[in-house]
Amino acid sequence: MTSSSQKTKSLSEIFQNNRQFIIPDYQRGYSWGEEQLDDLWEDLENITGSRTHYTGMFTFCTNNQNDRMMQIVDGQQRMTTLIILIAELLKRIEEGIQGGESVEEYTARYLYKKPFGSVAYKYNFQYSADDPSDTFFKTDILGHKDFRASLQPKDTLYTKNLRFAKQYFSSKISGWSQKQLADLFLKVTEKLKFNEYVIDELDEVYVTFETMNNRGKSLTTLELLKNRLIYLSTLFGNMANGDDTQIR
To answer: Is 44 within 8 Å of 187 (Cβ atoms)?
Structure first.
């Protein structure tokens, strides 16, 4: 079953109630380059006063055991980019946002937190644990230590794209005043608007993932194969529970 929000939401509304967003291993890695980053930056520059900007759609799939754990089915390129920008801004904002929250509170909402009594961080946005991009994101984007780093490839196409996005935003906001940084942070988290769709049955992911396009790019044969395997796994699960659905 799919639920949708008719009202567009900001990132601050999407990142509520301790939600955790995960890029599943059937998704392609981060592929945005300078052209897409320029488009996003231009959109942000054009937001003035009380204006908002519709930025697209997010589709999530909930976890049966934890409804706060959301797999990103569609929109992961956009969300990854915005989280990188948020991380770069929060490194530079010194005392929080006037009339808003502290840097620590914003960090806990959008990036990570360390639960009381725990030595490990809980990340609000991450890749699947066995994806090399997950280690890279935590070490090179967020600046954390990860014992897996020495076991992962030093560079992949996707980690190079992640690094480029970080450097792009770092260069853009270099030398900015605290007010400029705070204003941009509020644009990113409050003024960009999205539609949100939530899928709570895994077999619907097959239909959604197979038919979606990422800025007009067709899915590769490998991605379609992964998607087919996801679909078949749901059918085998249903058969094990007594459902006689035919596999076609």
So the answer is: yes
